């Protein structure tokens, strides 16, 4: 579950590229691919979450909830570079066969953007990024998003549109990541839309294991950028 939460957060899939404040880590100048993930202390994104769980083609469960992402500060990585601190708070209610399960989780990621790409770390002492997105962002680009578990990334298009609670966004970057979850023996496909100068506006996570499929959607509801 923790692996899924990391993917859902910004980059989540990445959840937001840096046009951040002048006091933050040095990164690319405005007008570059970094604008798809605006990083500045105090930036927040609130997502409405919904989903279904099917088994044998029949709906057996539903998911509702909220996810809040906030850039809360700046820290120094053990390798000597500065990173933004991203706090992720997930509150979900899952109902399966009349039984209710509550998920209330908070976790932290550390994010850095350079001229070569976006990098995410689960800890301040990692020597390698846990996931990355190389620049330039181009339709059709493929790369290894993460080594463990082996995760492939692909830019599906640079001209997607997304109609969500927060509004209608055009010319979005649409990214897909795929990996195998060995704990459930299933395939996980995560597709995210990112709007320039906004960040992640839509995210669809699909987990298929045998005849069971879980589909989990994050839709941007409110955001505030400094």
Account of the protein in words:
- The protein is mainly β.
- It has one domain: YmcC-like fold (Beta Barrel).
- It is 3% helix and 62% strand.
- It contains 1 helix and 12 strands.
- A 12-stranded antiparallel sheet has the order 6-5-4-3-2-1-12-11-10-9-8-7, covered by helices on one side.
- The protein is globular.
- It starts with a helix and ends with a strand.
For this entry, give a set of tags.
mainly beta, 12-stranded antiparallel beta sheet, 226 residues, 1 helix, 3% helix
Quick take:
The chain has 226 residues and is mainly beta. 3% of the residues lie in helices and 62% in strands. It has one helix at 2-8; strands at 44-55, 58-76, 82-96, 99-114, 117-121, 131-134, 142-146, 151-164, 167-181, 186-195, 199-209, 212-224.
Strand order of the largest sheet: 6-5-4-3-2-1-12-11-10-9-8-7
CATH names the topology as YmcC-like fold
In total, the number of strands is 12
Helix and strand composition category: mainly beta
Low-confidence stretches: 1-23
Helix content: under 10%
Number of helices: 1
Radius of gyration: 17 Å
Biggest sheet statistics: 12 strands, antiparallel
How many domains? The number is: 1
Helix-strand pattern: HEEEEEEEEEEEE
Average pLDDT reading: 87
CATH architecture call: Beta Barrel
Morphology call: globular
The top level CATH class name: Mainly Beta
Question: Beta-strand level of the residues, as a percent range?
Answer: over 45%
Question: What is the terminal separation in angstroms?
Answer: 31 Å
């Amino acid at each position: 579950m923790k692996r899924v939460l990391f993917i859902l957060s910004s980059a989540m899939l990445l959840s937001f590229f840096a046009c951040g404040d002048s006091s933050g880590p040095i990164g690319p100048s405005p007008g570059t691919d970094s604008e798809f993930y605006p990083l500045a202390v105090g930036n927040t994104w609130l997502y409405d979450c919904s989903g279904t769980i099917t088994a044998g083609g029949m709906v057996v469960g539903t998911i509702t909830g909220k996810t809040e992402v906030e850039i809360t500060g700046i820290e120094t990585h053990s390798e000597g570079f500065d990173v933004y601190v991203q706090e992720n708070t997930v509150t979900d209610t899952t109902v399966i066969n009349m039984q209710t399960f509550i998920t209330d989780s908070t976790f932290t990621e550390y994010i850095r953007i350079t001229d070569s790409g976006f990098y995410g770390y689960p800890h301040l002492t990692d020597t390698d990024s846990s996931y990355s997105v190389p620049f330039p962002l181009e339709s059709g680009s493929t790369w290894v998003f993460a080594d463990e578990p082996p995760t492939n990334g692909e830019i599906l298009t640079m001209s997607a549109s997304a109609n969500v609670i927060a509004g209608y966004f055009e010319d979005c970057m649409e990214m897909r990541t795929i990996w195998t979850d060995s704990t459930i023996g299933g395939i996980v496909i995560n597709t995210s839309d990112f709007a320039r100068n906004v960040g992640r506006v839509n995210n669809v996570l699909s987990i298929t294991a045998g005849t069971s499929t879980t589909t989990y959607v994050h839709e941007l509801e409110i955001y505030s950028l400094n």
